[in-house]
Amino acid sequence: MARNTLCAALVVLAAAGPLVPLAFAQQYQAPATGMTLEDQLKLARERIELVKANPHSGSGTPYLDPSGVIGATVISGAIFGGIFVAFVVRARQIEKRLAAARLHQ
Questions:
Q1: Exposed e or buried b per residue across 11-35, where buried means at least 16 C-beta atoms within 10 angstroms of its C-beta
Q2: What is the DSSP code (8-state) at residue 63?
Q3: Cα 90 off chain centre by
């Protein structure tokens, strides 16, 4: 019984161990730049005002650029699609060879 309790306690500690840094992550710590929370809030407000002043600028996310969201999706699809097609072609070649070998038997 004591062994089961000890094993259960070790499992609980092993599972809870990685969660400790998450608890400390909830606290605000000033970055190494020396900026305070108020300074960061001021910069954030200035950025919001700049975005409101220039609505035509967009979010800055390059959706259609090859390094953007859709571009990366298309490139990934082309690569993995090519690999898929290569596997299908190779599998059909093997099927044809096996069918020809069965006919010659």
A1: eeeeeeeeeeeeeeeeeeeeeeeee
A2: S
A3: 32
Token pair of 87 as six digits: 């596997």
Number of residues in the chain? 105
How far apart are the C-alpha atoms of 10 and 42, rounded to whole Å? 47
Q: In whole angstroms, what is the distance from residue 24 CA to residue 33 CA?
A: 20
Looking at this protein, which amino acid is placed at residue 36? Answer: T
The residue type found at 96 is K
49 residue type, one letter:
E
What is the C-alpha separation between 30 and 41, in angstroms, rounded?
A: 12
Residue with tokens 């010659």: 104
Residue by residue, pLDDT tens for the chain (105 residues) are 788 898 888 888 888 877 777 776 666 665 666 778 888 899 999 988 988 888 777 666 666 677 777 888 888 999 999 999 999 999 999 999 999 988 887
